[in-house]
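Hi team, as promised in this morning's meeting, here are the two structures we talked about. I've kept the exact order from the run log so nobody has to guess. The first one is mostly here for context; it's the second one we should focus on when we meet again. Sequence first, then the predicted structure tokens.
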Amino acid sequence: MCGVAGIFAGPRAEPPSLDELRRMIAMLGHRGPDGYGFYRDERVGLAHSRLSIVGLAGGFQPIHNEDRTVWITFNGEIFNHVELRRELEARGHRFYTNTDTEVIVHAYEEWGSATWPKLNGQFAIGLWDTVARKLWLVRDKLGILPLQFARVGERIVFASEAKALFAGGSVTPTFDGAHLAQVFTQWTVAPQGTVFAGVHMVPAGTALCIDQNLTVTEERYWSPNLAGDPALANLTLEEAAEALGEKLFDAVKLRLRADVPVGVYISGGLDSSVIAALVRWGKQGHVHSFGVRFADPAFDETPQQRLVAGFTGTEHHDIVCGPAEIQAALPDVVWHGEMPLVRTAPAPLFLLSRLVRNSDIRVVLSGEGADELLGGYDIFKEDRIRRFWARRPDSALRPQLLGRIHAFAAMNGAKDSRLWQSFFRRGLTDTDDPFYAHRIRWANTAWTLRLLAPDVRAACDPARMEADILAHLPEGWQGWNPLSRAQAVEMDSFLTPYLLSSQGDRVAMANSIEVRYPFLDPDVVDFCNALPPRLKMLGLRDKLPLRRIARDLLPAEIGHRPKRPYRAPMTTALFGANAPEYVRDLLSEQMLSRYGLVDAQGAAALAAKAHRQDGRMAGEREEMALVGVLTLQMLAHAYHDTFRQRASDRLAALEGTPIHVLEDRVGADHHSAERAA
């Protein structure tokens, strides 16, 4: 992985400044600590911070084609670069590096914008076509890697992270109230937004083409198709498992391609365990695995992690995460994530990626994506039960099925209580609602909105939130079966903007670690999407083909294990007698009033309650509200009070790091100027 940044100046703007490019890319040193490269002409400036994974020698970017008419700054990996390179060489292209990056510029020469669907990888691309005078900003099919941009007068600036845009000096970090409210409702901002006003995200599976007049044309080159393939309608479970196993093994082998060691995450659940087993099949020699242990047994999965590590023969490393560790990590998590959080779950993953780095591993494989593809989440099961209940809304027995997926309710007798059933009864018969599966979760989280300042709450527009998601869902998706519809919404509104960002790229790249996702391989995704619902979920039994695969790879205890959502301690880790000083400071009435983003009186009262009760709150909604307010305060503090000093420190750190100006056509001839800057 790497960091990318750039500037496209319109016809009436000054050429991009090398100083501005330096300031921008300096903020992305964590994404690429191995060196920096620049390209500049009278209209476009490209910058790159490098994390060396493939083509360690001679791979400094930006990289160009044979006649230096196409230039690219690239973040990511193209896993099928070997096959594409072979094809391009057969067509006459000549390469000067061994990188996967160079494959993209030659592919663009050969196929133009038809290149993007051919790329099997995770990527964010800034590509400048000097002949057509077009800048392309392209993001991978599922949005594994971030790419943000902003229009500022006669210029467009782009970067992997918003902090680079702000460091350049032309974009000011101002919060978008409507998008903050969206985080406090849906946990994140859907697909084309950020919490910063005027800063946009290139949507997943999308290429933006920007011409010399700065006109932006959006091309959606891929979207998930869950309509089902008639050719697979009669597939048996055994056949589905065999086909999925082959595709998944191929995906793992592709993601083991690297010129540095590759490890694997083991959570103790089914998905990561299958990936760990396949890694042992596909990789010769030593394999390192990594896992998070929790001091609180309510969150801990140590026995299952060690069982899998022992069974697969990996050398396992783990960290123990308790309140002190979460407290220490959370400010860094918020700084790198650039978004408030209503959960602390990203903090342990930040610490885990640090453990990977300290173990001299740069790349790890993860099991993320299987739940979205194969119906593994409780939200899909709730949807099925509620639709069954909706056929007889007065039934007293049907809602009790919810106790099968919410074991706490069954144990406590809550499944029989009117309060608990009324929670799931909301909108019960509105089965045509496009967000039927997600409505309850969003309504539950929206309770936290009461702690935002009145003007921020006033910016909350539920219709806009839903329109943002609807605009990016595939054509014809509302004609799909209920499970497929729910899966499509989950991928678009949660997998890409939250799991692959807050719990994925941002916390890993904060420690210069690249995470790869075999379940998100295009062939695996397309196959799972094409399966009929009965092969994903039978009754309330989920991920059927994957469980069948696990039967041959893992102990039965793992293969049969029910889904256990990944969670981390929240207010019990942050409030009470051992609360860190920054919590008390940021949630004091003075600081709550300082940024004008929260209801100071309400937030202070809830924080005081949490301190009195050592963080033991009445319910999850209160916990999410407090974590949301705290991390919003952290974000405001980082981007309003300390940003200038952070940017100065990062620019100073640039000195002494290899810097290459690959070409500078402003005020010089057009010959190569590769040199130390």
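And here is the second protein, the one for discussion:
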Amino acid sequence: MKNQVKLKGPLKSYLRWPMILSCLLIVMTIGIFVVDYKCGFIALAGLVCYAIAALLIYSRIRPIIIGELVNFALEYGQVQKALLYDLQVPYGVLDEQGHLLWANKSFHELTEDKSGVKGVDHIFPEVTSDKLPKDQDKVIIPITFKDSYFRAELERIVLTDFSSNNALVDTGETNVLIAMYLFDETQIRNYIRENQEQRLVCGVIFIDDYEDALNSTEEVRRSLLAALIDRKITKYMQNYDAIVTKIEKDRYQFVIQHRYLRQLQSTKFSLLDEVREINIGNEMAVTLCIGIGADAANYAQSAEWAKNAIELALGRGGDQAVVKEKEKISYYGGKKKQVEKSTRVRARVKAHALKQLIEGKDQVVIMGHKIGDVDSFGASVGVYRIARALNKKAYVVLNEVTKTVRPLKECFENNSYYDSDMFLTEAQAREIVDLNTALVVVDVNRPSYTECPDLLGFTRSIVILDHHRQSSESIENAVLSYIEPYASSASEMVAEILQYISDGIKLRSEEANAMYAGLMIDTNNFLNKTGVRTFEAAAYLRKNGADVLKIRMMFREDMETYRVKADAISKAEIFDHEFAMTQCVPGNIETPTVVGAQVANELLNITDVKASFVFTEVKGVVYISARSMEEVNVQLIMEHFGGGGHSAIAGAQLQDISVLEAMAKVKAEVRRMKNEGEI
């Protein structure tokens, strides 16, 4: 080691001073020779003696000095090592491959002397070789060890830096080491978690159809029913140290610590089931909506989020809990079938508001969802009639005309009664929509699903008429929103509104046919989601000239479509004895997704099948059509795949996946949700 060490810098120059002074003596000797050659010989003899003595001293003293320096360095290093070894912070030295070369006492005590293993990743799995500092000087890695949390700081040390920065010795070697420090953050994290768990969370509880539930009970028992509901809610929330305040006869506000929110979520808000089980002779089951706003910046924002959550729960049909945590929204419950409201008061109020809005605008633009279906088209035609009855120019945005919609659309084309520009494309609609335009969105409430999402930003007067349950994605700037999940179709909702807009509105047969077709298709010929108001809407349309035979002839199928349906049904499989699943191979048919939906409806005719799922691949996208007999909420299943719809009619779209992979994912999710009681 000593032979490899070389002196450099000031120390090297200091030891070479005798040799440098010898040069001065040579010059002096030459000068003496010039004055007196005899004296010069004497000086030359003295110079030779001096040079010999200097060389001897240099050759003998240099190793001694180097040895002393090395000994000093070793002793100094021992002091440093002792300090590092007794350092309270766990400290270790790794090589470039992550092998532990040396560790101090605290490190050994923490790891129970596991430093003999080959790699540090055997002790701390988070510290893998690919995470070690290479191009960067320092890397910070959070690790967990023995129920404790540490911040591992790894710093790259190049030994050439030592040689270049010291002024005494040059090792002549290049090497790399990694210093690893472990800082215990367990206590800090516990304080942070404790602070988070103690933060207050605001929530709202709303009793669905409170008046209807009371009216379904004998008058003498109504006060008892109200008291039982109040007791159930209060007692349940007290289990979570909640402060509950009844602010209205059907609305409660509560505050709980954040620590209890996870407990409520783990029980899937069992209060929903407890209240639904109350039965003292009431013909109508009592259901609740719960809205909670968590992780807000302040209590005012938490209360606002709770309000938004309760509105979302109501928009999805009630009987469920919605938790809004910043951008994340979670849903619980919603398994119960929505009960149709017998009163039309809300429809009348919405009709009056729609009339006032349209009368204050220059024109009306109506649009449905992408790849519009018969219900979307029928509802659009109904709103078109409302606008024309109020003497306003109206347009229907329609991009892609499917095979099922084409025969209905042809009834309005080349018809002198209707304007030639009644139907617009997306590009044409962008040119005419302005701030004086009323934009009516039908049969959809998700902006990304509309025919032209850009139009939503062109005007502030937006109206939503839809029968699908709301999701976390919604049109936020609507001035009028009429969303009724209990309704069978958007055409049914528009048919009701038409009856309250103005006296004497008479539908033409083309319009009545379009709306009746939408109502008929969405209910699968009045087999799904039909109620009293559904048949009342159908009767209204029949009274206005809807021709059932003509509509049926419009929707007859060609032989190729019939074969595709038969092939998909023949290949269907039944899993878990109550779910049907199959693939619809589109072939050359024009509307494969519509056929897939029809196949899903047909599969429900199989004995014991509670839900069906049909997968259709079109242009690299797998479309899922889900149907059920109301016993299984397929909308909850489809929401896990980014879709939605109704409890009995839902769908989703999956990209970058094969049909077989999509079928496997849906099957696994259905089984998971069934086992956990979510459906």
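Starting points for discussion:
The chain is about 45% helix and 20% strand.
The first strand starts at residue 6 and ends at 7.
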